[in-house]
Every structure is written in structure tokens, then in C-alpha cells.
């Protein structure tokens, strides 16, 4: 591996179409992995919340058997797969655009860096600002506000990633030691994440007193775990496939 | 000398050609996710209600806001 890297021959960049195919395949694998997690773990955390909803004698005003629970389980799995494939297509385009700037000596490393950023922006940061809530917790009247908060947090995460990468590029171009660059990058990330958490308005919903904390937090951790499985699998599978593609070209 | 030695050899990584359809496809994919995740009847009308309930658990478990 090291010999190949040190060889004077310039490697040629992979073409986009096969790269996209590798990412989409990895996205499907990530979707099946996180969808399986959804069925085995997250659904077990949703069940007590639905039981609460049932006990209140309500349920969503529009949820009355339009779709049965069994069908919703299938939808939970399929929706997770769709989301993973969508993320993989978006990550493929971004990866093609920034591949030559990403740290890492191989595509395994570069894809890992980009998908770690993706997990930070699309999973960790929203979870910090507005942790996921199980059914029976949300107030239907505030869904517009909560969607706006969610999108604002995603936007702030993308801006954070862009600013940090711009800072890293600038400092590296000036020849700073990598440890100094890393320190600066971490400090800027912390500052911007803190600003996002402090400045974006909080979730307006209060959690009703009949909802046990364990029901809420089991669900939140299951949800974050599901997203972690998705992004980790995407990063590992796409890294492996793209690395093989790049070595072939 | 100083910088070249301890930074990754970026010159060795050629820039990839990114066709315009890459970004179009990414936007299309995000729009599809929006339909799955967010649409509460805004675009799909009554079919949206079905999609909304069908993907209900995925939306919650992926941390997206839901009623």
C-alpha cells in the first residue's frame, strides 16, 4: 500500500458515474443495516410511547387505522433505507467535489472523514439541539416551528463544516504544523456548535407529565444509534468500494 | 520544505470532474426524502396522508420533526 502511494506515477481520478454507483450500493447496505436496527431496537422504544398514546384514548387525530401498525413497521424499515440511499447520493456528489481536499491517504480514509462530518451535521448536531421524540410527545400545532428549527440546525451544521474546512485549508497553506491546524479546527467547531445550540430557538414542545423519562430517553438513544449505524455503515462500505474503484482506474 | 513534509501530499490527488447531473441528482434525492419525511399533505395532498402514516416510524426514528 505504501509502495503504491510513494510511486511517482500520478493516480488518475475515478469517474463520477461508477463512483455514484459505489456510493448508492453502500447507501443501500447502510439502509438495510440501520433499518434492521430500527426494527430490532428503535421499534421497541416506540412501543411504550404508542401504548401511552393508546391509554390516553387518542392517538394522532389523523392516525386512525389509515395504516396499520404492521404496515408502519415496513414503512419504518423502507423509509430508513430511502433516507440512507438519499444521503449516499448526496455524499457521492459532495465527495466528488472535495475528494482532492479531504485529509486521508486513501479513499477509505477520505470517505470516513466525509461520512463522519455527515453524521455530525445530520445526526449529532440535531440530536444535541432538539433530541428526537417518540410518538405521543410532539404537539401537532408546533410541527412547523420544529421543522424550521431542524432545517436551521442542518444549515448551521453545513456552514460549520464549510468554515472549518476553509480554516484548515488556509492554515495548511501557510505551513502550520498539523497539530496546530487540528487544534484550531476543534476550537472553531466547538465555538460554532455552541453558537448553534445557544442561538437557535429551543424546541417549543414540553413533554407531558404522564410520559416517563425512560420512554423518551430510550427512544432518543435508539434513534441516535440508528443514525450512527447508518453513517458508519455508509462510511465503511463506500470507503471499501470506492477504494477498490480508485485502485482499478 | 517545512509544510510539504508534514502535510498529506495533496498534489498527488487529482481533482475529480463533477458533472452537473451529480448535483441535480442530489437535489432530486433530497426532494424525494422531503416527500417521504416531511410532506404532511402539502405536495401530495391525500396520497400524502398515506405516505405520511406509512413512513411515520422512519421519520420519528431518524430524528425528524413529526406532529
Q: Order of helices and strands of chain B, N to C?
A: HHHH
Euclidean distance between termini CA atoms of chain B: 58 Å
**Number of spatially distinct domains of chain B:** 1
Mean pLDDT of chain A: 91
The main sheet of chain B comes to: none
Average residue pLDDT of chain B: 78
Kindly describe this structure:
The complex is a heterodimer of chains A (249) and B (67). Chain A has 249 residues and is mostly helical. Chain A is built from 7 helices and no strands. Chain A starts with a helix and ends with a helix. Chain B has one domain. Chain B contains 4 helices and no strands. The N terminus of chain B is likely disordered. Chains A and B meet through helix 2, helix 3, helix 4, helix 5 and helix 7 of A and helix 1, helix 2, helix 3 and helix 4 of B.
Task: Based on the model shown, name its key terms.
heterodimer; A: 249 residues; mainly alpha; 75% helix; B: 67 residues; 58% helix; 0% strand
How would you sum up this structure in a few lines?
The complex is a heterodimer of chains A (249) and B (67). Chain A is mainly α.
Topology, element by element:
The complex is a heterodimer of chains A (249) and B (67).
Chain A: H1 2-6, H2 16-55, H3 69-98, H4 107-129, H5 143-173, H6 178-199, H7 213-248
Helix pairs in contact in A: 2-3, 2-7, 4-5, 4-7, 5-6
Chain B: H1 2-6, H2 20-37, H3 45-54, H4 56-61
Amino acid at each position: 500500500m505504501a509502495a503504491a502511494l510513494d510511486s511517482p506515477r500520478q493516480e488518475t481520478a475515478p469517474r463520477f458515474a461508477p463512483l455514484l454507483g459505489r456510493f448508492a450500493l453502500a447507501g443501500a447496505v447502510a439502509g438495510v443495516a440501520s433499518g434492521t436496527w430500527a426494527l430490532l431496537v428503535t421499534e421497541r422504544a416506540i412501543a411504550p410511547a404508542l401504548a401511552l398514546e393508546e391509554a390516553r384514548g387518542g392517538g394522532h387525530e389523523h392516525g386512525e387505522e389509515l395504516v396499520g401498525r404492521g404496515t408502519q413497521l415496513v414503512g419504518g424499515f423502507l423509509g430508513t433505507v430511502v433516507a440512507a440511499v438519499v444521503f449516499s447520493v448526496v455524499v457521492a456528489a459532495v465527495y466528488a467535489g472535495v475528494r482532492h481536499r479531504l485529509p486521508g491517504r486513501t479513499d477509505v480514509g477520505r470517505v470516513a472523514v466525509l461520512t463522519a462530518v455527515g453524521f455530525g451535521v445530520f445526526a449529532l448536531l440535531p440530536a444535541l439541539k432538539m433530541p428526537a421524540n417518540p410518538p405521543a410527545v410532539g404537539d401537532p400545532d408546533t410541527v412547523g416551528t420544529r421543522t424550521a428549527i431542524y432545517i436551521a440546525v442542518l444549515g448551521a451544521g453545513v456552514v460549520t463544516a464549510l468554515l472549518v474546512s476553509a480554516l484548515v485549508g488556509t492554515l495548511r497553506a501557510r505551513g502550520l504544523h498539523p497539530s496546530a491546524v487540528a487544534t484550531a479546527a476543534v476550537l472553531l467547531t466547538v465555538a460554532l456548535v455552541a453558537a448553534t445550540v445557544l442561538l437557535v430557538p429551543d424546541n417549543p414542545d414540553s413533554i407531558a407529565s404522564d410520559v416517563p423519562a425512560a420512554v423518551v430517553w430510550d427512544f432518543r438513544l435508539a434513534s441516535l444509534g440508528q443514525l450512527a449505524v447508518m453513517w458508519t455503515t455508509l462510511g465503511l462500505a463506500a470507503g471499501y468500494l470506492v477504494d477498490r474503484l480508485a485502485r482499478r482506474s | 520544505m517545512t509544510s510539504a513534509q508534514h502535510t498529506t501530499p495533496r498534489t498527488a490527488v487529482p481533482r475529480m470532474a463533477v458533472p452537473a447531473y451529480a448535483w441535480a441528482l442530489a437535489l432530486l434525492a433530497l426532494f424525494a426524502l422531503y416527500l417521504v419525511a416531511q410532506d404532511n399533505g402539502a405536495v401530495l395532498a391525500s396520497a400524502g396522508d398515506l405516505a405520511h402514516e406509512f413512513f411515520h416510524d422512519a421519520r420519528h426514528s431518524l430524528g425528524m420533526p413529526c406532529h
